[in-house]
Amino acid sequence: MSANPRPPVRALAGHSLRPMTLASLDGVVALEAEVYPFPWTRGNFVDSIAAGYIAWTLNGSGGELLAYCVAMRGAGEMHLLNITVAAAARRRGHARRLLDALVAECRDQDAERLWLEVRLANVDAQQTYARLGFIKVGVRKGYYPAPAGTREDAVVMSKIIEPAAGEADALE
Questions:
Q1: Kind and range of the H or E element at 15?
Q2: Domain-located, residue 1
Q3: Could you identify which of 20, 108, 126, 150 might form a hypothetical disulfide with 55, taking C-beta atoms 3.0 to 4.6 angstroms apart as the criterion?
């Protein structure tokens, strides 16, 4: 099983964006369990890597795991499946760094739109996505597991991927 080849390790404002690998899953799974009451399993991450999904970690200058994301390509679009920032690392632009890298990947893959779901109750995340250019396009009823066997709705948001500055001029 090979790791996702994109992106190569690269620096992002003193941090490094790395392909998620099987070796990095202990930290990823631990962070997932810290942050979510209904976390993805190790198997979900292993399956994502094996399927060739975009799976990245964002690490600090000391190598510490700050955040990660998993996204799926398909039919001229990209679907963000999971993005997580460690609680102690929030409000420092890490989600934006990951999303900016994902938008760049969308451009590289000729994906015209980036989709995501977010819990209806997670208003902070919805506001962050809106600031980054995502718009609400619908609601998925009962999408997320919730306490006591109930389900929570998801807000579906998307962002149209515009050509990078200079690309639009080259297309004319």
A1: strand 15-19
A2: no
A3: 20
pLDDT band for position 12 (50/70/90)? low
Q: Which residues contact 98 (CB under 8 A, 6 or more apart)?
A: 17, 56, 58, 67, 68, 69, 83
Tokens (6 digits) for 84: 């997580």
Q: Which domain holds residue 57?
A: 10-171
- pLDDT of residue 87 exceeding 90, the answer is no
Total tally of structural domains belonging to the chain = 1
Residues 153, 132, 97, CA angle at the centre, nearest 5°?
105
Within 10 angstroms of residue 81's Cβ, the number of other Cβ atoms is 18
For the chain, give the mean pLDDT. Answer: 89
Residue 118 lies in a domain: yes
Q: How confident is the model at residue 9 (pLDDT cuts 50, 70, 90)?
A: low
CATH number at residue 162: 3.40.630.30
Query: Does some domain include residue 121?
Result: yes
Tokens of 155: 């807000």
In a domain, 108, yes or no: yes
Question: Percentage of residues in the chain with pLDDT exceeding 90?
Answer: 74
